[in-house]
Amino acid sequence: MYQSIIDKYYPEDNALKRLLLRHSRDVADRAMAIAVRHPELKLDTAFLEEGAMLHDIGIFMTDAPGIHCHGTDPYIRHGIDGAELMRRDGLPRHARVCERHTGAGITLAQIEAQRLPLPLQDFLPETMEEKVICYADKFFSKSHPERVRTVEQAAKSLAKFGPDGVDRFMAWAALFE
To answer: Could you tell me if residue 13 is left (phi over 0), alpha (psi between -120 and 50 degrees) or otherwise beta?
Structure first.
């Protein structure tokens, strides 16, 4: 299912599509490994893989030339943009993953304090699948797809979003690792 959606929005085989597929596959594999290690979480593994593969579907709409994105929106909006696409395609659960995976989630207070170009609401992962995908995403950068961050490196990368995100991420690390 996810491949046809990716092909819909990324019809050409180019550097951006290859980067999206690599990054998303890395995130999906890590999320699925968490599901295998933690059967007690009773994760919906089919949705977990789909959500991980589609979490960054909106990056093409953003202006991030370093990762081959030549759209017009600021990169911070890639989750919101992806969520709009998923809702149009009748995939509201997938939309929630898209809009809630940035950082370790973004709060209304952060949006207001940092004057982020996002709708004024909380965008925090709520379901266990949303949390696992958000967590798994932090280990892989699209700028350096060859690297896998450690828990400590991933936590450090979240510091710019404030201590609450780091605390959420570390709580997830205690639960998922």
So the answer is: beta
User: Cα separation of 4 and 23, whole Å?
Assistant: 17
Q: How many residues are recorded in the chain?
A: 177
The CA distance from 148 to 137, in Å, is 10
- This prediction has a pTM of 0.97
Amino acid at 142: K
Residue found by looking up tokens 């999906």 in the block: 28
Beta carbons of 176 and 125 less than 8 angstroms apart: no
pLDDT tens digit string along 60-111? 999 999 999 999 999 999 999 999 999 999 999 999 999 999 999 999 999 9
| CB proximity list for 174: less than 8 A, separation 6 or greater | none
pLDDT digits over 123-152, tens only?
A: 999 999 999 999 999 999 999 999 999 999
The residue written with tokens 């081959």 in the block is: 68
Q: How many CB atoms lie within 10 A of CB 23?
A: 21
b (16+ CB within 10 A) / e for 125-154: bebbbbbbbbbbbbbbbbeeeeeeeebeeb
